[in-house]
Amino acid sequence: MTDKDKVPSGRDEVPLARDKVPLARDKVPLARDKVPQGRLQTPFYPKLKRVDTLDKWHEWKGYTAADALYCEDMEYFAIRNATAVFDLTPMTKYRITGPDACDYLDRLVTRDMHKVAPGRVAYAVWCDDQGQVIDDGTIFHLRDGEYRLCSQERHLAWLEASAIGFDVTIRHETEEVAALAVQGPTSFSVLDKLGLDGLGDLKPFGLTHFDFEGAELMISRTGFTGDLGYELWIEPAKAEALWDALFEAGKLHGIRAIGTNALEMARIEAGFMAAYHEFLPADETVRTGRSRSPLELGLDWLVDFKKPNFNGRRALAEERRRGSAWRLVKLDIEGNKPAHNAYIFAKPKNNKSEIGFITSAHWSPVCKQNIALGTVRMPHGKPGDTVWVEIYYQREMHWNRMMAAAKVVDKPFWFPKRRSATPPGPY
Amino acid sequence: MTERFDAIVIGAGHNGLVCATLLAKARKRVLVLEANEQVGGAAVTRDFAEGFSVSTCAHLLYQLQPAVSKELGIEPRLAANDLATIALDTSGQHVRLAGDDVSGVGGADRTSYREFRKRMTRFADLLNGHLNAAPPRLGTSDRKDIFKLAKLGFDIRRLGREEMQEFLRLIGMNIYDELDERFESDLLKGALALDAVLGTHLGPRSPNTLMTYLYRLAGNHGRLSVPEGGMGDLTGMLAQAARTAGATVRVAKPVRRIVVNNGRVTGVETEDGESFESLTVISNADPKRTVLELVGARHVETGFAQRINRLRASGNAAKLHLALEGLPAIKGLEDADYGQRLVIAPDEHYVERAFNPAKYGEYSPEPVAEITFPSVHDPSLAPDGKHVLSATLQYTPYSLRSGWDGGARTAFLERVMKTLALYMPDLEGQIVARELLTPVDIEREFHITGGHWHHVELSLDQFMFVRPVSGAAQYAMPLDGLYLCGAGTHPGGGVSGAPGRNAARTILSREKSR
Fold this sequence. Notes:
The complex is a heterodimer of chains A (427) and B (514). Chain A has 11 helices and 19 strands. Chain A is an alpha+beta fold and 427 residues long. Chain A folds into 3 domains: 45-89 and 177-270, 2-Layer Sandwich (Gyrase A, domain 2); 92-173, Aminomethyltransferase beta-barrel domains (Alpha-Beta Plaits, 2-Layer Sandwich); 325-412, Aminomethyltransferase beta-barrel domains (Elongation Factor Tu (Ef-tu), domain 3), CATH 2.40.30.110. In chain A, 43% of the residues are buried. Chain B contains 16 helices and 21 strands. Chain B is 36% helix and 18% strand. Chain B is globular, with a radius of gyration of 22 Å. Among the domains of chain B are: 3-41 and 65-73 and 231-312 and 450-513, FAD/NAD(P)-binding domain; 103-185 and 193-215, no CATH class. The two termini of chain B are 29 Å apart. At the A-B interface, helix 6 and helix 7 of A face helix 11 of B.
């Protein structure tokens, strides 16, 4: 370190010259000054920025979001061993209301929405006319006839097209709701300390409302980590106050803010699929055969053929009759080399052609397993089958190739009892 | 107990009746439900003043497919046949088009016109072969579809190298350019431009107006006739044919909804609360009304509902009926010529200019008109010695910015009378009564969404394989048991009977292959 580096920048005390000199544009506001340029900041941005030491950010649906804040691994272990707080404000949110809201959603998604009572959350998937997945997401039945649809991608055009003939109102409310995922074994204890009466009775996929400093705080027992966890939804004005209260309550429970990379590891362990990894939104594909149906993604349980009509039903009924082309598999792979971007083969040697490829992979620290999600051609990849994954890895510049045996597993890699225990135990 | 039928046809328009008759002839138990008191849909004869009646919408018969009359065993009674078209000129120098000949123009135009007609009728014949069958589905491996598609390609190729090139050059083109290149006479160009755009929301410079011209020639090479007793006589005949074949035709029975149960059609429910069961429901109504109102968008796929919702289906032609004390004087017109088809389209620019306001939701201050005096051929339409003027007024948009209620009607009629007075100065004095049917009136009275002649616009993006929309161009809708058979399907509007016949054949052949 040079002397120069040791000199305090003084930035905090003494404003820099450029901050003081009035620029011409300060007097005459230009139109462009009023248009936000670049990435948006979520209401939690100042809080995240305070704990951020890495300065690794990426764009997420128009917002800036942290890859990691201080240490990816530590953040990951916060999810699995303590409480992790993740800012999910950029998730796309639509408010769906009106007399036909339930019928509307029932036609939109493949599952039966009439069975989703107020105060419940439904994981759902929706398809185009060809029965190909546009996206998956969660539908919150906030109050009788009032819903929030939450998804990775933006879908207003599709949602409005779906509304022809229905008396519904669809409002894009991404910016109007600040949201935090509070996930991990101690998450209940943390929230309990906030004095949220009755939270212990909240079952998985349930939601309830609390008062927080005069604002309505919605808490749902949902998440993307496959662990005990909650998601908190509040108006942006109260976002920072909520953050402060949360971290104060979590002081002794190992609460930590996390970035996207840690969450990505957790979601693979939970066996959750993600858009642009396990499937491409059908409206983004150009070539035929590049999209996936819910049946090809292992979501048969979510497709209710008892419903007389939902979008894609005709095509899916036909697919069920003829058989699907692809299958999404969870793989337990031998060795410890992550199988990123690998091809999957039916046999270890003399392969004429591959049967599929890996879509997400990593070494799972908590499972001590080399895990992956992949897509294979039917009829390959039945649970219990062994397939072979061609892994390339680099060691001291030289590339090595190995054929690793991989077992197709049925259950999520990570599914602790506490995830569904009600009331959740204190940790 | 609700009555059960093999097939229910919604709407006794001419296509609905053709379809019902063919199904009944194949020993199906068929019920036809018509909302109005009269059968015929928009092809009816109605009284519009004491002692005066007229073909309410379509007033000239020129497209009835020979195959339809043959299979139904009907012979339309015609008051007049092979009408000439006379392009009116204010100074009396009219141009007369009759068959392949044109008079009142220079020698060069006469020769050009003959060539033009020869080529156009040849192309129209080619097209006609494909208008009388369900269009092939694209992108399937079904042999029938591939064969049909190959046949279309083969038919085009068989024109010969040069003619094929010409066909492919012209089919998507606007008629303005072709007319401008070929002819000198303004009146001739105006009259042909009018033929290309009549009943559409297109101007002579709009794309594919050459195709719409060919469409007009398909079937009978555009030979015009006046049915005796008006258009209602023909549809009355069709209804009789349907009844003779065993179909039940009930009028004043508007359908409230098509009943969908468990993802398939199971019948219909009428406005008065009666239910009829059938696993096959064929709608003669337009695609928008059928899917969005009678079925309900929620029972079909989103993408499909969206495509139906976005169909261009706004009419742009009005109908004017005048009850007259006597025929007006028209300079330079011989007495015998009052029975011909008269058009006001002095030149092609006039037609295009008349279209301009319509694009922006205004009516044309100088409309284009197609005029007939059907009473000249058929005295039964008017009291002794009196006459009826029946005119199609082009460029009267459905979505008029000011709305058609209130002052707009009167103001528009004034403009029309002014235009007509240029050619018939003493017309005003002859008028006993008048009736104006704007697209909005046509929508209300004949239940055609948008009041469009063709139900949905006749343009390449809504033609053949994609009429009315992709995924539903073979009469069967993507909802089990539901079919369309009206003008909104292939090939399109006009009193041709082709959609009705094609639909019936499709339904019967699907049944066979099941």
